[in-house]
Amino acid sequence: MDVEAIKQRQAFIWAQGDYTMLSRQLAPAAQALADACAVSAGQEVLDVGAGDGNFALACAREGASVVACDISPGMVERGRARSEREGYDVEWVEGDAEALPFEDARFDCVGSVFGAFIAPRPEVAARELFRVVRPGGTVGLTAWVPDGFMAELAGIGRRFAPPDLEQPPPELWGDEDTARERLEPLASRVEYERRRLVWQADSPQAFLDEFTASAPTIAAARQALPPERFEELSALMGEMIERNNESGDGSLRLEAEYAVIVARRRG
């Protein structure tokens, strides 16, 4: 597995497009993770794979002191601008989930909302998350579940940009047995819970149009694929969205199931 090539590709992809739509859709999961980790005033918190700062800002609103890191320089710029715009003092740095630029045992809580789960070597990322959290501190993750809408969407994307064959699918983090196997050697306790994000739009087409116009992964695909292949990708996504639509009135209602995983480092 060419780990550095994968990371360079991730850093590039997540600097593309406009993250606003995805950020809005994922924000409830960030709040759910902050609640599950019992983040509170006075704690020092690290947000890994922070995107534009959903988890970081959820923790800052609780009064925590927050550092946010992301492997993509473009995403760090977005997050820093958003934090300043919303009036929160979040420290932003470039950082790789597999080699975090922080000293051992610095943070009370380390969390990642659909960020660290894309690191190419899950066990390496898990060790790093636990390395920088204090004994007795909390490590929290969210991940898409393998049998959910987002895993199916990712599967479509992988037809057009096949990953390294040795890289495990990110949604394996959302399988309870796999998550426990990766975390229990490092933790005194691991808690796993499935939750749902509900996304709504005026119509399936309206959702698809906004998603394909803004999502970083799709913006990168648009650059990389010939026009006819990109149209094929869009059509397959549209069919899948229609198939998963739970609304019967022409609007869109999608449920995206995900896992909230909270582990405590041994004291």
Looking at this protein, list some descriptive labels.
267 residues; alpha/beta; 7-stranded mixed β-sheet; 10 helices; globular
Would you write up a description of this structure?
- By secondary structure, the chain is an alpha/beta fold.
- The protein has helices spanning 3-13, 20-36, 54-61, 73-86, 122-131, 149-160, 176-183, 204-214, 216-224, 227-244; strands at residues 44-48, 65-70, 91-94, 107-113, 133-144, 187-201, 252-265.
- The chain has a 7-stranded mixed sheet with strand order 3-2-1-4-5-7-6, sandwiched between helices.
- β1, α3 (54-61) and β2 (65-70) form a beta-alpha-beta unit.
- α2 crosses α3 and α6 (149-160) packs antiparallel against α10 (227-244).
Q: How does the major sheet shape up?
A: 7 strands, mixed
Distance between the termini: 35 Å
List low-confidence stretches.
Answer: none
Total number of helices = 10
* Number of extended strands: 7
Q: Give the helix proportion (percent range).
A: 40-55%
Topology:
Blueprint: H1 3-13, H2 20-36, E1 44-48, H3 54-61, E2 65-70, H4 73-86, E3 91-94, E4 107-113, H5 122-131, E5 133-144, H6 149-160, H7 176-183, E6 187-201, H8 204-214, H9 216-224, H10 227-244, E7 252-265
Parallel strand pairs: 1-2, 1-4, 2-3, 4-5
Antiparallel strand pairs: 5-7, 6-7
Summarize the structure.
The chain is of the alpha/beta class and 267 residues long.
